[in-house]
Amino acid sequence: MKTHLIIFILVLISFPITAQTNLYENPDFDRIARRHKIIGIIPFKTTVTLRPKQMKDITTEQLDRMEKSEGESIQHAMYSWFLKREKRGELTVKVQNPTTTNAKLLKAGLTADNFAEHTPDEIAKIMEVDAVIMGTFETDKPMSEGASLALGALFGFWGNTNKAVINLSIHNGADGELLINYNKGVSGSLGSSTEDLINTLMRKASRRISYSK
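The structure assignment produced for this chain is given below.
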């Protein structure tokens, strides 16, 4: 039974890969991951950098809501991908429902704004999981359907290009040890929902590294 943790590349389906990829994998990953029964995904800390002209037409509160929505959209799209394979019996681990994850985090006073103030093992303890998937996402346009539609309606145009940087880390819940770190910069055109994006790219990533039977 091959046991690995899935990494995903968060890029648009139509994106040409233009930036360097940085990948670290803990040499003891296989041994550590064999003990994992349940993993969890927290909302990604997202930064949407709009043009100065766009910033004049949006409030700080609107931007904050957009970024929060984007981070949670990534979280839910990843969970959906895992869940489909879990139901087919293809995973060796369970994946915590984001509703449960976010309720536990909220009760403990944790948000995307203060995740950095807590160690991965502290977060895992609050979530009651064996491993935590977390990360940051920076883009000049939101990718989630709701945020993208809101932006298009707000500014009256869509544009053809998008630049984004994803930084993904997976930590062992028991001691916070880093298992995977993946950093990727991409650019291309906007044209897919977050769920479609994750579904396509997770399928590709799973052929290399997966929690699969």
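Interim note for the steering committee: The chain has one domain: 21-206. The first helix runs from residue 29 to 33.
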